[in-house]
Amino acid sequence: MGRTSTAKEKLITSAIELMGNRSYNAVGVQEICDHSGVKKGSFYHFFPSKRDLTLEAIDTMWGKFKEQMLDPIFNSDIKAFEKFNVLMNKSYEYQSAAKECTGCVTGCGMGNLALELSTQDEIIRQKIEQIFEEWAQYFEDVIVDAVNEGDLSVDTDPRSTAQAILAYMEGVSLMGKTFNDPTMLSRLGEGMIQLCISKKNISLEDNM
Amino acid sequence: MGRTSTAKEKLITSAIELMGNRSYNAVGVQEICDHSGVKKGSFYHFFPSKRDLTLEAIDTMWGKFKEQMLDPIFNSDIKAFEKFNVLMNKSYEYQSAAKECTGCVTGCGMGNLALELSTQDEIIRQKIEQIFEEWAQYFEDVIVDAVNEGDLSVDTDPRSTAQAILAYMEGVSLMGKTFNDPTMLSRLGEGMIQLCISKKNISLEDNM
DNA sequence: CTTATAGTTGACTAGTTGGTCAAATAATAT
DNA sequence: ATATTATTTGACCAACTAGTCAACTATAAG
Predict the structure, then answer these.
(1) For chain A, which terminal residue's Cβ has fewer other Cβ atoms within 10 angstroms, N or C?
(2) How many domains does chain B have?
(3) What digits encode the pLDDT tens for the residues A61-103?
(4) Proximity of residue A121 CB to strand C below 7 A
(5) Is the CB of A2 under 7 A from strand D?
């Protein structure tokens, strides 16, 4: 009953775009409203607060990221290690496009919000923690497969390795943003595979 | 001539502490003044803007970090790889103390500002880029030494490897902050060594 | 002891922040 | 056609933002 509206979706879309290019605290409710052509009164009809809009925006971001990036790659049957390379490559393409379009490497929207808000808003921190957990699970599954297929040592700790890879991806994104240089992503991409190799697989003895 | 003052130093110290625990945009000039017991009029006597204070705060942060962390470790004569482990361990201790004290893993102050401000303030981005360059140089020197001493393959790309290690450190800090869990730093610390090993040194053939 | 100068103070902008609300409006289900 | 309900609107608020400034004060150097 009553009328229908696309205002809520427009607000979320604008929030993702604006906060993605700048930051949570640098983007005000008014600017989000202006950008989406929605009046502030409507904003607070749909969201009790800026934080609530942000929580929904994070959900939407994560949903799209899974749908457009993670699922296509991790449901495909390419070789385990290759999946990481493809992901890093897609990220490179994404950041290159961002720089073309806005002049700036924007980095990972999730990591950006995580660093900005983790000490400021416990609810948002927990939400992103949960998403990182889910994200690492994609990696962990692949690592377990690789161990089972004999491509990785049985000494591999899948959970820590998955977290290490996620950490590395986030770190590379941070560097790319700081240097405003998307090629950072492709150049440092190789490191991800190295993080998979259990220490015992490395022939350190040969060199040390 | 005229009177002397410690206000400038106090403002910088407060800015580092407050922005370190929260963020640039979340901390106002007024709060920095209250925290340091300096009146706002004095703030603008010493700094033309909040950004200028921040630029000096970044310099001070970096100076202390070099003096207290990097120089002691990288000027010592412990083994190359061990230096990375010591650094990661010190970071773990630092984040543990931060959590004890404030309840929050605060992450890397430099990385925090980098992600928040790189797309917002080009001057600050450039300053942090330059610091990251200097920081990676510490790593690169060690890697070159390790190559010369035969501890690392001659195939190693010292610059990219150094950047990869810095990226990983920043990524691990980001994860630690997002999970509000300092043990993340110690648990994922091992990965740094793996990033040093040139692909050709890895006996992938054994497993693949 | 004076004078030049560096630092301090508090009151003051003008603009923005997140958020509120009552009244108007449009559409839907009956 | 009507009653119900969802949405829209714009005016409004108090608190806060970065930044200004003229008057005041302390001191270091001559």
Answers:
(1) N
(2) 1
(3) 999 999 999 999 999 999 888 999 999 999 999 999 999 999 9
(4) no
(5) yes
